[in-house]
Amino acid sequence: MSRGPDAATLLRRALDRHADRCGITVTWHGVLSRRWASATFVGAQHRIAATVAGTGLDAWIDGLDEVHLQLRGHLVADVVVTMISRAEDQAELGVEVLTVET
């Protein structure tokens, strides 16, 4: 019996949908995830490397920490852009995301 996609896969799909709605193209270079837990929550920390392109790039990047990403069985608790290297309408991004199981 399949449990369905993990939080990293759901996160990547949600970011793809959000980027598509904003006219941004995402090329994934990697998503590294590791389990995470606090005294009250269980989830995962994700480190994402990607190239993003599009005319609304700056607004899309600036809004990443505010966007509500829908992940079945998970809540996106925190999004931090850790690295940006821009060239015209393209950027290399490093993003860290904390997801919590619901």
Can you tag this structure with a few keywords?
alpha+beta; four-stranded antiparallel beta sheet; 102 residues; 2 helices; elongated
Characterization of the model:
It contains 2 helices and 4 strands. The chain has helices at residues 7-21, 57-62, and strands at residues 25-37, 42-53, 74-87, 90-101. It has a 4-stranded antiparallel sheet, covered by helices on one side. A hairpin with a 4-residue loop joins β1 and β2. The longest helix has 15 residues, at 7-21. It starts with 6 loop residues before the first helix and ends with a strand.
Write a concise synopsis of the structure shown.
The protein is of the alpha+beta class and 102 residues long. The protein contains two helices and four strands; from the N terminus they run αββαββ.
How would you characterize the largest beta sheet? 4 strands, antiparallel
N-to-C order of helices and strands = HEEHEE
The general outline is elongated
DSSP summary, beta strand count:
4
The assigned structural class equals: alpha+beta
Q: How far from one another are the termini?
A: 21 Å
Radius of gyration over all CA atoms, rounded:
14 Å
Strand content: over 45%
Spatial order of the strands in the main sheet?
A: 1-2-4-3
**Regions with pLDDT < 50 over 5+ consecutive residues?**
none
Number of H- or I-type helical stretches:
2
Tell me the helix content.
10-25%
Question: Average pLDDT, to the nearest integer?
Answer: 94
